[in-house]
Design goal:
This protein has 417 residues and is mainly α. Helices cover 58% and strands 0% of the residues. It has 22 helices and no strands.
C-alpha cells in the first residue's frame, strides 16, 4: 500500500480510473506509465472489488508476478460469476503449480470461504494431474514402467485416485472408439474440441491406478478387456492407438487378459503395409513395447526393433533414439549388459533429442557405476538444460519453474528534430 500512499488522493483516483478504463489500450498505457505502483491498485481492487476489466488485468498481472502473498487475493475470485474474471483467476493460480496447491490449502476462513477454497483446490489438483500426465507423455512416450514414474503425481498431499478414475470414466467414449479404430478425426488432424482429449496423453493415470488400485481399475474397465478380434477392414493411420488405450491393454495383459492387447497388435500390424523406412519405426516401437512389457515376449520385441533399425539411414531421428533405448532395456532384461550399454550409447547418438529418461529410469541402476554410463549421464544433463521444464524428467526436490521474465522494453528513440 506504500505505493498508493505516495500518490495524492486526486492522482490515486485518476490512476484508478485509467486502470479501470473500458478501453484495453488506455488500461495498458496507464499500467505501463505507473510501473510497480499499479500493483497496489490491483491488490486493492481484488480485495475490495472493482469493474471486471480491472479485476481481469489485476489477476493477469499478479499471476505473472507469482508472489506467494497474492494467492489469497487471486483464489477468492475463482468462483466469480463473471466468466472472464473466474477464468483469469484460474489461469493465475495455475502458474503457481504445486506451491499454489499448498498455499490454497493453508488459507483460513477469513481469507476465502470454504466453497471457493474447495473449488480452487479441485481446479488446481486437476491441472496438476494433467501436467504430470503430459510430462510423462513427453519424457516417456513408450510408457515404460520405472520406480519413480509416479513421484511427481503423488508429490501433493491430497487424495488423487478418485480423480484419476473419474478422468478415465469420462474418457471411456474416446477409448471405445480408439479400440474400434474409428477415431479418424484425430489421425487426420481434425479436432472437434479445443482441449486435447485425455485419452491422448493420460497414460500415467492408468499406470498409477494399475500400481495402487489394480482391482478397482480391472473392475471399472472390465468391459474394455472383452473385445472381438474381427477384422473391420480399417487400415492406414486409423489403426494407430492412443496412449491410454495402450496402457490399459498392457495392464489387462499383465492380469492374464490378453484379448485387448492381441487386437491392438493385430490392428497396428495391419497398417505397417502402408509404412516403410523411418516412417515405420514409431509403429514398430509401440508394438515392441507392448510385446515386451505386456506379453513378456522380449526376444520377439528385440527382433522387431533390430529389423526396423535396418531399414533406416544415419540421419538423426528421435524415433531411432528411442528404438535403441528400448533395445538397451530389453538387453538388460536378457542379461546382456555390455550390449545394453552399447545400445544406450547408440540412443544418445541417434537423435538431437536423446532419451533423457535414462536419468531417472531404475532399469539401468546396475550400469550406473560404469564409466561409459556416467558419460551418458553427463551428456543427458547437458542436453536436459536445452529442454523446456515439462520435457525434463521430474526428480524429488525439484523446484517449481521460475516465471518467465518480462521482455525488456526497448529504449525510446529520441527524435533529433
Amino acid at each position: 500500500m506504500l505505493a498508493l500512499i505516495s500518490l495524492s488522493p486526486a492522482l490515486a483516483s485518476q490512476a484508478n480510473d485509467s486502470l479501470a478504463s473500458p478501453t484495453a489500450i488506455e488500461r495498458e498505457t496507464a499500467r505501463a506509465g505507473m510501473g510497480d505502483k499499479a500493483l497496489a491498485i490491483y491488490r486493492k481492487a481484488l480485495k475490495d472489488g472493482a469493474a471486471p476489466a480491472l479485476l481481469v488485468d489485476a489477476l493477469m498481472e499478479l499471476g505473472r508476478k507469482r508472489e506467494g502473498a497474492d494467492i489469497g487475493l487471486i483464489a477468492r475470485h475463482v468462483s466469480s460469476l463473471d466468466p472472464h474474471v473466474s477464468t483469469a483467476a484460474v489461469d493465475a493460480l495455475k502458474g503457481y503449480g504445486r506451491a499454489g496447491l499448498k498455499a490454497v490449502q493453508a488459507l483460513d476462513a477469513a481469507t476465502i470461504d470454504a466453497q471457493t477454497r474447495r473449488q480452487a483446490l479441485d481446479l488446481l489438483l486437476l491441472d496438476h494431474v494433467k501436467n504430470c500426465c503430459r510430462r510423462d507423455f513427453s519424457v516417456n512416450p513408450l510408457r515404460l514402467d520405472y520406480t519413480a514414474r509416479l513421484d511427481e503425481l503423488y508429490s501433493v498431499d491430497l487424495p488423487l485416485d478418485d480423480l484419476l478414475m473419474k478422468l478415465l470414466r469420462d474418457a471411456l467414449p474416446d477409448i471405445r472408439q480408439d479400440i474400434e479404430g474409428t477415431r479418424y478425426y484425430y489421425y487426420y488432424g481434425y479436432q472437434p474440441v479445443r482441449e486435447q482429449p485425455f485419452v491422448e496423453y493420460g497414460a500415467l493415470a492408468v499406470a498409477a491406478l494399475a500400481r495402487r488400485r489394480p482391482e478397482s481399475l480391472e473392475r471399472e474397465m472390465s468391459e474394455l478387456a472383452r473385445v472381438s478380434n474381427e477384422d473391420r477392414g480399417w487400415y492406414g493411420y486409423g489403426n494407430q492407438r492412443a496412449p491410454v488405450t495402450l496402457e490399459l491393454a498392457a495392464f489387462f495383459a499383465r492380469r492374464g487378459q490378453t484379448a485387448l492387447v492381441d487386437k491392438l497388435i493385430n490392428d497396428m500390424q495391419s497398417m505397417l503395409r502402408w509404412q516403410e523406412g523411418r516412417y515405420a519405426v514409431p509403429f514398430h516401437l509401440q508394438l515392441a513395447a507392448l510385446q515386451s512389457s505386456a506379453l513378456g515376449e522380449h526376444s520377439a520385441a528385440l527382433d522387431r526393433i533390430n529389423a526396423a533399425l535396418k531399414s533406416v539411414g544415419l540421419e538423426p531421428d528421435q524415433g531411432v533414439g528411442y528404438a535403441h533405448y528400448l533395445r538397451a532395456r530389453i538387453l538388460l532384461h536378457l542379461q546382456e549388459e555390455g550390449e545394453a550399454l552399447h545400445a544406450l550409447e547408440d540412443a544418445m547418438e541417434a537423435s538431437n533429442s536423446p532419451p533423457v529418461l535414462v536419468m531417472v529410469d531404475n532399469a539401468f541402476d546396475k550400469l550406473r557405476t560404469e564409466r561409459r554410463f556416467r558419460d551418458v549421464q553427463r551428456f543427458c544433463e547437458l542436453r536436459e538444460k536445452l529442454l523446456p521444464p515439462q520435457s525434463r524428467p521430474w526428480r524429488k526436490g525439484e523446484p517449481e519453474p521460475e516465471p518467465e521474465p518480462e521482455p525488456e522494453q526497448p529504449e525510446p528513440v529520441e527524435d533529433d528534430d
